[in-house]
Amino acid sequence: MTSAPPIPVSDAVDALNRVFGYPSFRGQQSEIVEHVVAGGDALVLMPTGGGKSLCYQIPALVRPGTGVVISPLIALMQDQVDALRTLGVRANFLNSSQDLDERRLVEAEFVAGELDLLYVAPEGLGTAGVQRLLDRGKISLFAIDEAHCVSQWGHDFRPDYLNLSMLHERWPDVPRIALTATATPATRDEIAARLQLTEARHFTASFDRPNIQYRIVPKNSPAKQLLELLRTEHAGHSGIVYCLSRASVEKHAEFLSQNGIPALPYHAGLDARTRAANQSRFLREDGLVMVATIAFGMGIDKPDVRFVAHLDLPKSVEGYYQETGRAGRDGLPSTAWLAYGLQDVVQQRKMIESSDGDVGFRRNAARHLDAMLALCESVTCRRGQLLAYFGQAENPEKCGNCDVCLVPPESWDGTVPAQKLLSTVVRLQKERGQKFGAGQSIDILLGKRTEKVSQFRHDELTVFGIGADLREAEWRGVVRQLLAGGFLAVEGEYGTLALTERSGEVLRGERKLLMRREAPSARHSSSRSPGGSRQPAAAPADFPESAAPLFERLRTWRGSVAKEQGVPAYVIFHDATLRAIAALAPVSLDQLGTVAGVGQGKLAKFGDQVLEVVAAEQ
Ligand code: ADP
Ligand code: ZN
Predict the structure, then answer these.
(1) Domains of the chain from N-terminus onward
(2) Are 110 and 137 in contact (CB under 8 A)?
(3) 208-263: pLDDT as tens digits
(4) Which residues line ligand 1 (CB under 6 A)?
(5) Are 574 and 584 in contact (CB under 8 A)?
(6) CA 553 to ligand 1 center in whole angstroms
């Protein structure tokens, strides 16, 4: 290959200003862009909302040829392409949803060099047809989005990703950039190895998402707790509610709808058309709540998701962080809320134990769960814990924007109650040869003469009634924390309690157990402190109250344009951009063009209309 003269960095900044309307790169974007523009390979780890897309879109714009983006998300390609075209970027996609004529058209565009960006599905790339096509045009770079899909231990594994190492073999001169928001050191190494990116430069951004408030609350009546959260803090907002099972998704979507909150279900049991329709409505309409299993969410780049709520415990911190990261991509204040209780621990431990996976799989799953439980039971800053988990040592001691920092939990010495509970398990097993679940052990400790207690004559045990000094909720907390710490185990189909190797440490008094105090029920849910000490990075500080009516009019205008064009509202302009316009109230195109998020393409398309809306308000 003859070497072309190097592309000046100013081209990249120029594209950023002109096309996207942003004044400057954020964080590591400029380094990454510079590296890829110069032809280098890169592995980029950045949290959701960090700004990964620009890292390959800008190099694709300034390098000669078409940037080929491998994305696992066929259903979202149309939206991604629409968003780019609205900016004036020449983009298209190839996937199995198209008929032959449509494909031919896109192929012709690519061969003729008329595309800046071409999105393809990983399974497509594996076919000889697509590979031959790519040989006929000029490729500026390969971007491998959602690169963690190559990880076999991960939660989003896609077998087709394993073949992507062939990109390097077949097109050794084309730079590759792999991007993901999943970021433990182990996953990163796995991605690098499987995609043959060991020589690539690694870029790891800070994983902090300062605008997201992390909260983990004790679960008592989850549906009601959720409703209260939405009513008091997120009325009219878009958000995602994650549930473990399809049945639970259906139930909670129904529950929210009945209570006047517009909600849609999403899970793998719905037919493809309903799923696509619900997803599309969530993206396009303002203020919808998506109740979903984790089948939903990857690649959803809706910027104004204001909350992500989990009604069940996620299986890993990686999954939790990725799911909660879907909130607040626009940098505005958002909430990540998780309700967590004893039943979650029992259920997840049981699921692991009864899974078909081999020993390695189960050990891996248990390790992931343990990390998640440690986060839930933590009495120190959640954000600090999360960042430490992702290997970021410089985490702040107190972030000021998580439940622990806002309302520090009280801890108490739970050693003696823990011993009583473990003794009960020992007595049942040793004296009676019996195993029971948490409920029965707690009833025994509380001295409750239930039918089941009488039936098994458990009131004759020496431990009967020795725990009447604690409330039932507190006992459930003790069991939960013992399970979380590995001092107690659950077994079999019924989730019966059993001792572990570590139970002895507690029984012999070698170990003091500090426990989180259980909040007296319900009251806990609204812990958002208005005077939270940390201002989220992009809080709309310079948005005067008086600009609110204009903002609303601009939103209405945006809604009608989006509908007319059949694209999500945020594709026209983000909330943050509309706010800035409302605050500025520009009177000329030049002035409007200075607003972040208004590039040349959008200025030409929408500028006059926006000025009209502004003028009508004056
Ligand atoms: P990711 O893919 O990492 O989740 P995106 O690429 O979707 O993140 O970017 C998140 C949001 O930040 C988008 O709304 C995007 O327009 C915005 N953004 C990204 N880079 C910049 C920048 N340099 N200046 C202003 N906004 C940016
Ligand atoms: Zn904190």
Answers:
(1) 9-204 (3.40.50.300), 212-408 (3.40.50.300), 412-516 (1.10.10.10), 545-617 (1.10.150.80)
(2) yes
(3) 899 999 999 999 899 999 999 999 999 999 999 999 999 999 999 999 999 999 99
(4) 22, 25-26, 29, 46, 48-54, 301, 303, 329-330, 574, 596
(5) no
(6) 25
